[in-house]
Each structure stands twice: as structure tokens, then as C-alpha cells.
Amino acid sequence: MNMTTRIHSTESFGTVDGPGIRYVVFTQGCPLRCKFCHNPDTWKINEGNEMSVEEIMSDVRDYLPFIEASGGGITVSGGEPLLHLDFLIELFKACKEIGVHTAIDTAGGCFSRSPRFMEKLDELMKYTNLVLLDIKHIDPEKHKWLTGMSNEHILDFARYLADKHIPVWIRHVLVPGVDSEEDLQKTSDFIHSLPNVEKIEILPYHKLGVYKYEALGIDYPLKGVEPPTKEQVAHAEQILKRELQ
Q1: What is the pLDDT of residues 97-126, one digit of tens each?
Q2: Of 136, 162, 225, 234, which sits 20 to 30 A from 205 (CA to CA)?
Q3: Closest by alpha carbon to 179, among 132, 235, 241, 131?
Q4: Whole-structure pTM value
Q5: Which residues contact 59 (CB under 8 A, 6 or more apart)?
Q6: What HEC string does 183-234 produce?
Q7: 108: Cα within 13 Å, side-chain hemisphere
Q8: Among 132, 171, 148, 142, residue whose Cα is nearest residue 43
Q9: How far apart are CA 37 and CA 216, in angstroms?
Q10: CA-CA distance, 70 to 64, in Å (whole number)?
């Protein structure tokens, strides 16, 4: 329980990161550089605060009545949680000891079929109830333009979760001008090839994190791009969700 890792922040009453009221842990460090990222302050892995499993669990216990009454749990987000596998294993083991539902909010950017990574990931999945998986873009070239990295290993991660029968909520950030109708259809086809998807969420692109870029002295890459309209979001949802209700 004394294992530590770099944590950006925590949130005690999250309501959008899985079912019920969630205690959300934002880990530090991310291999992706998404042009629409609203948390660029989580990118560098050696920043943030050192926190232990026991510190987080002590905090979680304070909110247990609210978490349990709402059917909630703990969600580890980021940054990229899968950069912290050893920590997550110990944290989720501790959660299971007190009956807390566990979820990981990930883009899968560091997924690898290497034996060492797979051994730890297999262990983590024993204690994981839900994965919220961000699919940034279905096209590998557009994904590379959007995030700095191709997406083959991320789609492979989605298949891994299907093989493991881990419940998944798919999330997709809708950025006007980035997703064509064909892209959305292909994304839908891929999602519907996965038997473990329980929910599909369209997250409208927003500009709420722009001030962080200014504070960090980083040029904001999507200057001039406006959030999608309600109609655009509804249309994208219609394509992605199809018969999944």
C-alpha cells in the first residue's frame, strides 16, 4: 500500500467518468499529444505530486457512503493511466478489498504486446470492472496528425479488451473538420465488431483548456476551430451508435 506514483490531481465527486459518483485520479504523463487536449499540464511524466496507494485509499474511504449509494467507484484517468501499471494493480487490489467498482479512462497510447507489459496488464484486468476507451480517430494517418502517434496498437488494445471480456465504454471526441462521414462510418464499423462495448459517448470538442496552453507557453494547435453544433453531435451519435442502444 506504500507504492507511489506521480499524480496530477484527484476529484472526489466525478459524475462523467463511469457509473455513479466517482473518485477520479488523474495520473501524470502521456505519450499522445492530441491537438484538442485540454490537460497539457499532464503530459510530462516527472511532474505532478508523488502519492501513495494508501493516501488515495484513505481519501476514497471518506467518500464511500456517496460512492456506494450512487453505484459509483474509482476511475483512474490522466494523462495515461497505463503508464502506471504497477501502481494501478496495487490500487485496484485495495479497492476490491472494500468492494469499490474500478474503471480506467485510457487512450491506450502505450499498449504493447511485449511480454512484460502484457503480464502486468493481464494482472490489472483481474481487478478492473470497466474501461473507458478513447478512440481518437479510426484512420492511422489522420490519427498520427491528430495525436502524434499512429493508432494500430490502440485498435489492437480494443481487441485485447474484447478477448478479455472487459466491459468497455467507447468515447470519441468530435472535432469539426477532422472526422468525415466516411471516418465516422468506419469508426462505427470497428466499434460494432467488438462484443464487449456497453456504451458509446460522443464528447464535443471544446476550448476550455486553451488558457493552460498560454500558461505553459505552448501554441494552441486548433486555433480557429469552433466546437461542433448540437446537430453535428447528434448526427455523429446516430452514425456511431447505430443499433446499439
Answers
A1: 999 999 999 999 999 999 999 999 999 999
A2: 162
A3: 235
A4: 0.94
A5: 10, 12, 23
A6: HHHHHHHHHCCCCCEEEEEEEECCCCCHHHHHHHCCCCCCCCCCCCCHHHHH
A7: 26
A8: 148
A9: 13
A10: 10
